[in-house]
Protein: 3-dehydrosphinganine reductase
Amino acid sequence: MAWLWALVALAPAFVFLIWCLLSPRPTRISLRSRHVVITGGSSGIGLSMAKLAVLEGSRVSILGRNTDKLTAACQEIVSYPETVQNLADTAEPLAVFGKPQVYGYSADVKDFSSVEKALTEAVEKLGPIDVLICSHGVSTPARFEDTPLDSMYHMLDTNLKGNLHCLKAAIPHMKSRISEGPGCISIVSSQAAQVSLYGYSAYSATKGGLRGLAEGLQQELLEYNIRVSLIFPPDTETPGFVEENKTKHELTVKLSESSGAMESMDVAKAAIHGLKAGQFSITCNFEGLTLSTVTAGMSPQPSLAHALFEICTMGILRIVAFVVLAGWYKTIGEFNRGQRK
Structure:
């Protein structure tokens, strides 16, 4: 029993050591009275996050391509606090109730000059950017050899280059902010970036590149007190998801049928909560948490609780991953054999 008591005695020292090693250090990010810019904010997850940002007391700018959809989205966001008053994740909600500041700007993330112009106008209207949420994205799932190059380029230009454009245009404005407290850049990636699936090869490539972008940016922007995070939503009930389902291969549907789609507001709540907690990897459900853990690698981890969870479960979750992968490859093999008959 002596070894057991020794482990108990050493446990606090081990926890303290992990706490000392956490980089960047834990922090809290406030949204109250701050300028939040959301790309892809006229629909889906971006629109839901804009609604929650208003409840937190933020000044909100949304970017999208369609001016009619932007106008409708702004009206929906402005009226949202009047119908839902208890969703804000804050002890002092609704400082701007009744008169939220919400503006929409037409921009195509594939065009840098378009994004730069929109962000300049947003800053002139509501001040330097405190929080940037890159929520735009497009997916056209299909087998790699069945995916036209034009479709691949569209996903690449939107999902990866589009984020480069937004960050390149926004970071100078974020560095010039004068508000106290850390700023934040949150990039909406995908669980398909953590583990790819049959029919998602090209899409996963465009989303997987965002991790390298975010990890490097966090190191570069920490001196300006800007935190970076990656949001990993699962399948989410959005207009884009409806379009996505139109091109899914039948085997993709079969492999993913055990995972139900989340509502966009539920994803937005998890994203805003993780953003405010200063998390680097923001997950939206238990499946996402396990994927984030088993693929943690060299990603920053400012949360002590999450760090300890990763240390204690990573080996076990790797075994679980083997089991899941075995099931996937069995299903793929059976499907291919059936096609050959």
